[in-house]
Structures are given as C-alpha cells and as structure tokens.
UniProtKB/TrEMBL annotation:
<dbReference type="Pfam" id="PF07985">
    <property type="entry name" value="SRR1"/>
</dbReference>
<feature type="domain" description="SRR1-like">
    <location>
        <begin position="66"/>
        <end position="185"/>
    </location>
</feature>
<protein>
    <recommendedName>
        <fullName>SRR1-like domain-containing protein</fullName>
    </recommendedName>
</protein>
<dbReference type="InterPro" id="IPR012942">
    <property type="entry name" value="SRR1-like"/>
</dbReference>
C-alpha cells in the first residue's frame, strides 16, 4: 500500500512540485580503469580528511543509540556521475561523496546501529551512465532509476542527499520519514531574508518548505563541519524515539 501511495504522489503530487532533469551534451566518457584509479586516490584522501573524521563522529550517542535506532539501508540522491563533467574534468566531489557513502555504511555496522548486518547501499542520479553503474556495483552500491530510490526508503533507512536535481526533502517529508538523513542544511530566516536562497543553487531544486520544517522537528540534527568542502553544508539528522 505504501508503494502505491508513493507512486501516486510522485506522478500526481498534491502540491505543484516540478521534477525536471537537465542534461548538457556529455563530454567523452572515461574507462573503468581511470575511474577505479581516481576513486582509490580520492577515497584515500577522503579517509585521511578531517571531514571524514567529523562525519564518523556524527554517529554517536545519544542521537545514534543502537538501542533506540536501527539503520540497515542507505539511499543516496544527487551524488553525481564519476565520468568527466562539462569542463572535461573528473568531478572530485562526486568521488568523495560516493566514498562518504561507504564510510557511513561501515560506521553504522561497526557501531551496531545496523544490528551488525551489512548496510545496503543504493544511489539514484540521472547522470549515471553504464560505466558508473558497473563501477558502483563493484563497490556494493546499487544504482536505481527514478523513482525507485524513493520506493526504497523505509523506517530503517538513512537518506544521503547532496545538492540533488529533484526536491528530495519535500518528497521524503510527504511520503516516508526515514530513520536518519544526511542532507543540505536548511536556511535560517536571516539567510532567506538576506537573499541566500537564490545564491545556493541546490536549494532551487530542493528548497526549504513548511512541510520539511515540520518533519525536521521530529529529528535531532547537527551540522557537519566540512572545511575542505567535500560535501558542502550538510546536517546529520536522527529521528527521535517515538513515545
């Protein structure tokens, strides 16, 4: 029943939310070997970074108490292709964001937040090509097409979203509240009144809304310190135990 309700919302949303993917002509692709070599390099740098350490340190008690929260699945949105961007360069941030997905999965298992089982990893992004799909599959990340990523979300899911091209936060708020989220930090009223809304392009596709704010009041969040700008301005949320 939940999946039927979700499809109805995605195909005929109750509010005027447009989901539009925009593609520029793609530059020539890269080989699996180039992607693999680049990922190993970026992942090593990521694992040695302060941002990675800060992210790992986000999954601690009391917000992430294994006795109160269970996460067995990660569904990611908007992490980007591992091929060349429109400037003909490999997108380092996309590589780091996929490495971060694996970091989160490992931490959830190590700290028994997944009840000791391997965490399933899924990712949805319209920019993925066949090479991306093959490489990510080798890492244990299953690529999903729209709207399959949203169909995977349940009460034991962590949603990981970085500047997506779709209103991820609004869809999640309307359809299925997950156990946790790592996604773009909401703007304060001061930032909105000061014009920051229009200066942050991810917010144009995934804007703040009253519905999102209402959902977030049921979560405890802490902003991630990312001085190296691997991920941008993100907040790590955990759902409060329901009485």
């Amino acid at each position: 029943m939940l999946h039927t309700h979700l499809l109805d919302l995605l195909l005929d949303p109750p509010t005027p939310v447009s989901i539009v993917y925009v593609r520029d002509p793609s530059p020539p692709g890269v080989t699996l070997k180039v992607i693999d070599d680049t990922f190993k390099l970026v992942r090593r740098e990521w694992q040695e970074s302060e941002t990675c350490s800060n992210l790992e340190g986000s999954f601690v008690k009391p917000r992430f108490d294994p006795e109160a929260i269970t996460i067995t699945k990660i569904v990611a949105f908007g992490l980007g292709t591992l091929g060349k961007n429109n400037l003909g360069k490999l997108p380092v941030r996309s590589y780091a964001q996929h490495a971060a997905t694996l970091t989160i999965a490992a931490v959830l298992k190590e700290r028994n937040i997944s009840r000791g089982v391997d965490v399933q990893c899924f990712s949805q992004d319209p920019w993925y090509n066949e090479t991306d799909i093959e490489f990510l599959g080798g890492l244990g990340i299953t690529v999903l097409k729209d709207p399959e990523g949203f169909l995977e979300i349940d009460e034991q899911t962590l949603v990981f979203s970085v500047g997506p091209d779709v209103p991820v936060r609004q869809i999640v708020a309307d359809v299925q509240w997950p156990a946790a989220m790592v996604w773009n930090s909401p703007l304060s009223e001061v930032q909105i009144n000061g014009g920051m809304y229009w200066a942050r392009s991810p917010m144009e596709a995934d804007p703040d809304s009253e519905r999102v704010g209402s959902m977030l009041r049921n979560y405890d969040g802490a902003q991630l310190d990312d001085q190296a700008d691997y991920l941008g301005e993100l907040t790590v949320y955990a759902r409060r135990p329901r009485s």
